[in-house]
TrEMBL record:
Protein's name according to its UniProt entry: Tripartite-type tricarboxylate transporter receptor subunit TctC
Transmembrane segments: none
Pfam families hit by this protein: TctC (PF03401)
Record key words, sorted: Receptor, Signal
Family the entry assigns: Belongs to the UPF0065 (bug) family.
Position of the signal peptide: 1-23
Domain of life assignment: Bacteria
Database matches in SUPFAM superfamilies: Periplasmic binding protein-like II (SSF53850)
Length: 326
């Protein structure tokens, strides 16, 4: 009996230690992959979120930019990572809806991820350099119609929201074959794409408000429109409703948290709790709103439904504009 008692005690202790070890996630720092370059909307959203995680996450959440191929490189690295919760990512409109909608061959699909939740939505702003003689969307559209193939726009790479948004907006203004009427200049990230317009190396950009708000505030970019029903504080531009194009309200960016498919339930539960706390954090909310972003809290299913709907919308537009990429 004594031997049996010792065996049961040892087994119980071992089981308890295993449970305790399992309950310790995270035991080490968590890598948060940002699949686009510094200064863009994805980078800003991810670093804003990571800046407040020390209040709620017991280990550091370390943002890492893994750029390349318009978000594909970093996103694929997460899809192929060990699903242990130590490699997560900022899922983005470009990486998870535009890229799949545009590119026939990708090293991942939107089903290769476990989604925790969408935490931010960003309206799109079209802007030109403050030194440009283009004062309005009418000026921009007139120039494109008069000289098709002479006006350039910058993006964060093939398959990004920036790549699709400019032709989409110009198409809404009645420019035939909008994709062919513009010169696309891809850069490694939204920050570099915005800089190209500021320095005069590209004529205009259509990207998320968070990536341009600082440049607009500093007076180096002139906003021409914003894809919201109501004006956005700090962005002195007419809304698409005011310009007679309410259909462009569907053109928005978003950021969420995702990990490789097969995450343990504990990891998903803890990330869900952390994301909820971050979404209620006053520092996070203030910074997001100051950039013209809209903080949101979506459940896992709401996020999946939202992402799938975005994919369908963009896929339809890609086909219409002839923007499929092999």
């Amino acid at each position: 009996m004594k031997i049996l008692a010792k065996f049961l005690a040892a087994a119980f202790a071992l089981a308890c230690s295993a449970v305790a070890a399992h309950a310790q996630y995270p035991e080490r720092p968590i890598t948060l992959v940002i699949p686009y370059g510094a200064g863009g909307a994805t980078d800003i959203a991810g670093r804003n979120l990571a800046s407040v995680t020390p209040k709620y996450v017991p280990q550091p959440v370390l943002p890492v930019n893994r750029t390349g191929a318009g978000g594909v490189t970093g996103t694929a690295s997460v899809a192929n990572a060990e699903p242990d919760g130590y490699t997560m990512m900022v899922a983005r409109v470009g990486s998870h809806t535009v890229n799949p909608a545009m590119k026939a061959t990708l090293p991942y699909s939107i089903e290769d991820f476990d989604y925790i939740g969408v935490f931010e939505i960003n309206p799109v702003v079209c802007a030109v350099s403050a030194e440009s003689d283009i004062e309005s969307m009418d000026d921009l559209v007139s120039r494109i119609k008069e000289n098709p193939g002479s006006v350039s726009y910058s993006s964060s790479g093939v398959g990004s929201l920036l790549h699709l948004s400019s032709p989409l907006v110009i198409d809404a203004y009645g420019v035939e074959k909008a994709n062919e009427a513009l010169i696309h200049l891809p850069f490694r990230g939204g920050g570099a794409a915005a800089t190209a317009v500021i320095t005069g190396n590209a004529d205009f950009i259509c990207t998320n408000s968070s990536a341009l708000a600082g440049h607009i505030k500093n007076g180096v970019l002139r906003p021409l429109l914003v894809t919201t029903e109501e004006p956005v504080p700090g962005i002195d531009a007419p809304t698409v409703n005011e310009l007679g194009h309410p259909e462009l309200n569907a053109l928005v960016g978003w950021s969420g948290i995702a990990g490789p498919k097969g995450l343990p339930e504990e990891v998903k539960t803890k990330w869900g709790e952390w994301l909820q706390k971050v979404g209620e954090d006053e520092d996070f909310l203030k910074k997001a709103r100051d950039l013209g972003s809209v903080p949101v809290q979506m459940s896992v299913q709401e996020s999946i439904d939202f992402i799938n709907n975005q994919y369908e919308v963009f896929r339809e537009l890609v086909v219409k504009l002839g923007m499929e990429v092999e």
